[in-house]
Amino acid sequence: MRWFPLLLFFFYASPSLGSEDVLSAEEFDALATGKTLFFSRHGNPYGAEEYRRDRSVIWSFLNGECQYGRWMPGPDQSICFVYEFRPNEPICWSFFRENGDIQARVLGAAPEDDLTLMGESRGPLECQGPDVGV
Fold first, then answer.
1. Quick one: which of 103, 120, 119 has its CA closest to 111?
2. Residue 99 backbone class (left: φ over 0; alpha: ψ -120 to 50; beta: rest)
C-alpha cells in the first residue's frame, strides 16, 4: 500500500494520463483548414472562425463584424492567432479532445472558460462590410 500515494502522484501529474488529448499543429490544420468552425461557451453560441488554406483566419462573435488574422504553431502544442487589430499580441490556445468533444482553452485560462466546438461548415463566414447601413 506504500506505492498508492506515488501512483496517485503520477496519475495527476502526468498530462498524458489525464483526460485531455492536445491536438498538434498538424492535427489542428487537418481539423480546421477549409472550414468555418462554430464555438460555444457555457452552452451558448460564442463565435465562429473561418480557416483558409494559407493559415489566414476570419473570426466573428456572430454579430457580422469580422476580425482578420493568421494562425501559427505556438509553444507547448498551442495554436497562436495574430489579428490585424493587435498585430503584436498573439493569443495562444490549446485545442484538445475531452469526453468526445473538441475544446479550446486560452493558455493560462481557467477550464470553465473553455470553448467547445459545436459545428462546422464548408461555407464562408458571413461578414458585413465596413460602415454598412445608413
1. 103
2. left
> CA-to-CA distance for 127 and 134, rounded, in angstroms?
17
The model's pLDDT over 36-70, given as tens digits with 9 standing for 90+, comes to: 999 999 999 999 999 999 999 999 999 989 999 99
Helix (H) or strand (E) holding 57: strand 56-60
Q: Which domains does the chain have, with CATH numbers?
A: 21-118 (2.40.128.640)
Average pLDDT for the chain: 85
pTM over 0.90: no
Side-chain-side CA neighbours of residue 78 (13 Å): 15
Among 58, 86, 47, 93, CA closest to 72: 93
Q: H/E element holding 90?
A: strand 86-98
C-alpha cell at 85: 487589430
The rounded distance, in Å, linking the Cα atoms of 71 and 33 is 11
Distance CA 69, CA 51 (A): 10
pLDDT digits (tens, 9 = 90+) for 76-121: 999 999 999 999 999 999 999 999 999 999 999 999 999 999 999 9
